[in-house]
Amino acid sequence: MLWRRPVIFAKSVNEGHSSLWRGSAIENLVQKVARDVVFWQALQMHRAGLRVVLMAHDEVVLLARDEDAEAALEAALAWMQTNPPWAEGLPLGAEGKITDRYTK
């Protein structure tokens, strides 16, 4: 569950005084939630039988046979647009492609 995971806040220290820039706190919180959403989606893909081989930020990379690639892409896109139960109403979108090597 989201509230049981640690949230890391960046802070700067200046001559023994510490401060937290609000932008860093918000950015870290947003990135943490995004990571949890993508991790949940990748876990669902794995449970559905897709072969997840890499996660990088907001990407999930799958390995599939040539004849299964289209179906795997469709399933992955469906999962990437599915909200976890704890994030109902979160606007999600996804795009993907089939390639023979990892590209950005």
Number of E-state strands: 4
* Class inferred from helices and paired strands: alpha+beta
Instruction: Please provide the ordered H/E string of secondary-structure elements.
Output: EEHEEH
What spatial form do the alpha-carbon principal axes imply? elongated
Largest sheet: 2 strands, antiparallel
Strand order of the largest sheet: 1-2
Distance between the termini: 30 Å
The portion of residues assigned to helices is 25-40%
Q: Helix count, per DSSP?
A: 2
Low-confidence stretches: none
Rg over CA atoms, rounded to whole Å, is: 17 Å
Mean pLDDT: 85
Give the percentage of residues in beta strands. 15-25%
Annotate the secondary structure layout.
Layout lengths: L11 E3 L2 E3 L2 H26 L3 E6 L2 E5 L5 H12 L24
Antiparallel strand pairs: 1-2, 3-4
Structure description:
The protein is of the alpha+beta class. 37% of the residues lie in helices and 16% in strands. It contains two helices and four strands. A two-stranded antiparallel sheet has the order 1-2.
List keywords for this structure.
two-stranded antiparallel sheet, elongated, two-stranded antiparallel ribbon, 104 residues
Concise summary:
This protein is an alpha+beta fold. It has helices at 22-47, 69-80, and strands at 12-14, 17-19, 51-56, 59-63. The strands form 2 sheets. The protein has a two-stranded antiparallel sheet with strand order 1-2.
